[in-house]
Write a structure and sequence with these properties.
Strand order of the largest sheet: 1-3-2
Number of strands: 3
Number of helices: 4
Structural class: mainly alpha
Number of domains: 1
CATH class: Mainly Alpha
Shape: globular
Helix content: 40-55%
Strand content: 5-15%
């Protein structure tokens, strides 16, 4: 089985020197596997502004920076301890994170 997280990625729209290297990008399925969140939840969090919109390949596949995994775990932990998604968004906004 191919480890998709380490496989070279095709060129992305808007790629430049300041963006993560291709090896630092994870497809949606890998992010789902590492966080236990569904595709719909990832899209909801993106729509709400809790995470940045994913880069896409020429084929339209979404690629997330590896750092999103820890960010999503934090969102999940905060939500499980009683914070609403609106509260979490406000916390991230105040801290300059997203």
């Amino acid at each position: 089985m191919v480890d998709r997280a380490r496989k070279a990625r095709p060129a992305r729209k808007g790629a430049d020197a300041g963006e993560p290297a291709a090896a630092d990008l994870l497809p949606t399925g890998e992010v789902m596997a590492r966080t236990g969140l569904s595709r719909q939840v990832l899209y909801q969090y993106t729509a709400m502004g809790l995470i940045h919109e994913a880069d896409t390949t020429a084929a339209g596949h979404r690629l997330y920076p590896a750092s999103v995994v820890e960010h999503l775990r934090l969102i999940r932990e905060l939500n499980e301890t009683g914070y609403t998604l609106r509260d979490i968004k406000e916390i991230f906004f105040q801290r300059g994170q997203r």
